[in-house]
Structure formats: structure tokens, C-alpha cells
Amino acid sequence: MNAKGSVFKYPDNVDTDVIIPARHLNTQDPKELASHCMEDIDKDFVRNVRDGDVMVGGWNFGCGSSREHAPVAIKAAGISVGIAKSFAVSSTAQHQHSAAHQGRPEAVDASGRGTRQRGFSTGLSR
Q: Is the pTM higher than 0.90?
């Protein structure tokens, strides 16, 4: 896979409530979710993200509650690949099961302990 685009880098422990705040969970519309993606940690993200961009996280990316809205919002915003030192384990099985069917961005565990898999925010096992 070749990824081209801007890189949006985030710290350790970015939880699903930061990726898509709970106050916006009243919709399933990917475009609406994308319009609020990362707004509590990066006010400029939605304005600056373009199709094909890359998201980089630290340790434990996607921790917190298991919400399908988070990877949907990230993908709909235009992110093509996510790279993190590790992905949260809390909802790994759920995300692994449905990731390929929802067209999520490809995720790469950069710790060297995980695997490469379709399914972003919490989709990798260690």
C-alpha cells in the first residue's frame, strides 16, 4: 500500500470520545460524523483533512468505549491509513469482525508487536 497525503499526528490514549464526541452519536450518517471527527482535540482537523491523508497515534489509540462511530468518522473524513504505536484492546474482537465490511482505513501497529489489518481505531490485536 502506498499512502500519500498530509499526516495528522496525535498523542497516546486518544479515546473514542475524542475521535467522535458522544454528543454527536445521534446520527449514523458518515458525512455528519466526519464533520465532528477529532473536534475536541484538533479544531482544524475537519477543515484540513483530505482524501488519502494519514492519521498517526501514540500508544493505546482508540481506547474507551467500543463505538463503531469512531472508525466510520475517521474513514468518512478521508483518512486512508492509520498508524499507531498500539491500538486499544477494549473492542478488538468487535472491530476485527466487522472492519473489512465497513470499508475502514487500513491500520498499522507500529510497535512491532501487532499485525496489519483493515479496521482502524481499535482493530489490531497484540
A: no
